[in-house]
Design brief:
mainly alpha; globular
């Protein structure tokens, strides 16, 4: 029995998302931010239509789009996307999960670039503390 997600084959969605993600990274690493943004937006739309806008995979795609906005100096557009991504990730993965922390760290970078140093500093302190707690939990799990 092959279940579908919103009428889409989950394996095909995962494969296409992976292909698009690899393309985004290749373009980003090559400094082709506008082209990478186009592909990242395609991936985000694919995941939103397949999983909905409350899924952690979608949130990761939102974070990627925001990171590209950031790279293009479009901080005002990156900020709400990073807030959205971190909210979804916190709800679905937990507030100390590395994906949640990555979105929050990216948001701190955006605040810094927007001249909101106090906000950035406070968020960085929070991210460091949550990362420390996450790492402590991982050590405890291994014992």
């Amino acid at each position: 029995v092959n279940k579908t997600i919103n009428g889409q084959d989950p394996e095909l969605v995962a494969l296409e998302s992976k292909r698009l993600g690899q393309r985004v990274h290749a373009l980003f690493n090559g400094g082709q931010y506008r082209e990478a943004l186009d592909v990242a937006e395609q991936q985000m739309k694919l995941l939103q239509s397949a999983y909905g806008s409350d899924h952690h995979e979608y949130a990761t795609a939102v974070n990627n789009v925001a990171t590209l906005y950031q790279a293009l100096g479009r901080h005002n557009e990156a900020e709400p996307l990073l807030q959205q991504a971190s909210r979804i990730q916190e709800k679905k993965l937990g507030h100390e999960h590395p994906h949640t922390l990555a979105s929050l760290a990216n948001l701190a970078t955006v605040y810094e670039a927007m001249g909101q140093k106090e906000k950035a500093d406070a968020l960085n302190v929070l991210v460091r503390e949550m990362r420390r707690r996450w790492e402590e939990k991982q050590v405890t799990k291994r014992r």
